[in-house]
Amino acid sequence: MKKRTVTVVICAALALSACQSQPVSQSVVDRNAEFGCVAGTVGGAIVGGMVGATIGAGTGQIAAIGGGIGVGGLLGNRLACR
Questions:
Q1: b/e per residue, 14-49, with b = 16+ CB within 10 A?
Q2: Is residue 74 included in any domain, yes or no?
Q3: Domain-embedded: residue 22
Q4: Which partner for 56 in 5, 24, 61, 73 could form a disulfide, CB atoms 3.0-4.6 Å apart?
Q5: Neighbours of 68 (CB within 10 A)
Q6: This prediction's pTM
C-alpha cells in the first residue's frame, strides 16, 4: 500500500470515530466507553504495526513490527481509555 493511501484511510477512520451521538442512559455510556477503549487499543496496534513494517529489513523488520504493535496498542489504550 502506498503511504498516501494509508494516511487517507487513517484520517477517514479518525473522522468517522468522532461521529457518535450523545448516549441516553448510564449503561449506554459504559458500553460506548468500553467500545472506545477497545477500538483505541486495536487501532493503535494496527497503526503501530504498519509504521513498524516500514522500518528495517529481514529479522529487524519483524522486531520493528512487533514493537510497533506493542507501543501502538499501549498508546491507543492510553488515549482512548481515559
A1: eeeeeeeeeeeeeeeeeeeeeebbeebbebbbbbbb
A2: yes
A3: no
A4: 61
A5: 22
A6: 0.60
